[in-house]
Structure formats: C-alpha cells, structure tokens
From TrEMBL:
Residues 55-126 form the Methyltransferase domain. Keywords: Methyltransferase, Transferase. InterPro entries: Methyltransf_25, SAM-dependent_MTases_sf. One of its GO terms (biological process) is methylation. One of its GO terms (molecular function) is methyltransferase activity. It comes from the Bacteria. Pfam families: Methyltransf_25 (PF13649). Residues 1-20 are annotated as: Disordered. This is Methyltransferase domain-containing protein.
C-alpha cells in the first residue's frame, strides 16, 4: 500500500501471474515510487539526516528514498530482494562516472539486512514499506528488523510507516478491490488497512523504544487512468487478485474503482495520509 508502496513479491500460494519484471520495476520507478516523497522528506527533516548520518534502507526498491538521503549528504545502504528494482537503484546511486566520494557514500545489496553489515554502525534504519502491504505485514517486517537492528548503533532511529485512517485515505477504496478479488486465495499477502497500533506493536516486538510519530499527506496523482492502473499494479498488491481471477477482470475492476477520482482533464487524484513511527534501538 509503500505511494508504496509499496514490494514486488509473488503470491504465497497459487501460480504467480505472468508479468515482465523489468516492465513492472520500471512502472514502479517512473510512476508509483514518487508518491511517498512527502513521507521521506518529513522523516529526513525530523531526524536531521545529513553528512553524519548512515542510513540502512530496508526494501529500498529502485532507490528514490536513498537518493534523497544521499542528496542531504548521508551515506546510504539499500537492501532488497527484487533484482530488477535494484538495477534501477544502481543506475541512480552508482553511476559509472561516480567519483571516489560517491563510491563510498552508497551501497546496494541484493539479499537480506544481515548482508549489509558495515564497520561503522547505522544511525538510521528505514522501513518505508507501509505495514499492511506484502513484506510490510507485522511478521515479515519483524523478521527484517531482527536482522537489521543489530547493525545499528545504540539509540539509532528506526522508522516504520503505515497507512493512515481509512477515512482519510482515498486509495483505500481502490486497494479493497485487490483484497476482494483475492478472497479465494486467503493468506496470499495482499493489502489490508493498518491498525491504529500496528507500528507500536511491531516496534515493541523488535525491542525498540517509541520516540515520536507523525502523519504526512501523500496524495497519489497520475497523468491518466492508464498510468494509475500501471502504477498501482507495480506495487504487487494486485498479483493475488490476478491469480484468483484473471488480468482482464482485475484491470476492469481497478479502472472502475479509480473512476470517482478521475478529474475532467483525465488526471487521477487520490488524497491519502500516511503515519510514521520513530523508534530507538536499546
């Protein structure tokens, strides 16, 4: 749900729908990833991310959040399991003509947080994938934090995020299509609303101490209905629905759900609010 929103993981049961992973990753990078930019900016501003900051980005995708941290002078490391998204992250963060400073300031790791250990501990760990979206469920996020927290220094900030109240998130009604169509395949890891205390529960299970939270407006805006469908499908949240039904039905119902948010000029605009929690390592 991690703008959102969002990871490209296959459904846990049933046959995965046929998609071109490179096209999916490009749609994520060019259309959907930017939707959470206000969230990234708010978190980095609150934590005063800068040259003294060492960021570990969990589920970094195609690297936009890392790029924003790097532009503030931070040293960044991104971890993800989606090779196609990581290829795009490398294009952004590790250009072939980079200088020695840039080379030392950014790393991209294909694998797990444990593979991202570095000599100097991280000062900020981010999990911008909203809880309720694929790896952002409590169990999956807990596993990632179990590996990541030992890599952070004492008192380091760990940032978790989630959807705001459903009544303040227009995209909720659209994402419910994914959950409804995937109903025959229970437990496939599709979208669900974030509970009020989800972030605090995950932090507590990871042994973290809450240290403040905030809400950020993150509207989802698209050039047209087709772009909206491509962007939302790039999150992977509709894959279980495609497996349970078929691509044509998902596209049809998704377009219908988007119709109330399409403006006279053809653009699509859905106001949303996201919540983040800052927690601290022991």
């Amino acid at each position: 749900m991690t703008p959102t929103l969002v990871r490209q993981h296959p459904p846990r049961t049933g046959a995965a729908p046929r998609v071109d992973p490179r096209v999916r990753a490009r749609d994520w990078s060019e259309i959907q990833e930017r939707m959470l930019v206000p969230l990234y900016e708010a978190v980095y501003e609150r934590l005063d991310v800068g040259p003294a900051t060492r960021v570990l980005g969990l589920g970094c995708g195609s690297g936009l959040a890392l790029l924003m941290a790097a532009s503030r002078g931070a040293k960044v490391t991104g971890v993800d399991t989606c090779a196609d998204r990581l290829d795009l992250a490398r294009e952004r963060l590790l250009p072939e003509d980079r200088d020695a400073h840039t080379r030392d300031a950014a790393r991209i790791v294909h694998g797990t947080p444990a593979q991202a250990a570095r000599a100097d501990a991280y000062t900020v760990v981010t999990a911008f994938e909203p809880i309720g979206c694929l790896f952002g469920d409590a169990e999956g996020l807990g596993d990632l934090l179990a590996e990541a927290v030992p890599l952070a220094g004492r008192g380091a900030a760990v940032v978790l995020s989630g959807w705001g109240p459903p009544e303040r998130c227009a995209t909720t009604s659209v994402l419910r299509v994914a959950a409804k169509l995937a109903e025959p395949l229970r437990g496939t890891g599709t979208w669900r609303p974030t509970d009020r205390d989800d972030l605090e529960r995950v932090a507590a299970r990871a042994g973290l101490r809450p240290d403040g939270s905030g809400r950020v407006a993150c509207p989802f805006g698209y050039a047209d209905g087709g772009s909206a469908v491509r962007g939302l499908k790039s999150t992977g949240l509709f894959d279980p629905a495609v497996t349970a039904t078929d691509q044509a039905q998902v596209d049809k119902e998704l377009a219908e759900a988007l119709h109330p948010y399409q403006r006279p000029d053809g653009t699509v605009w859905m106001p949303n609010v996201f919540r983040y929690l800052v927690a601290r390592t022991p």
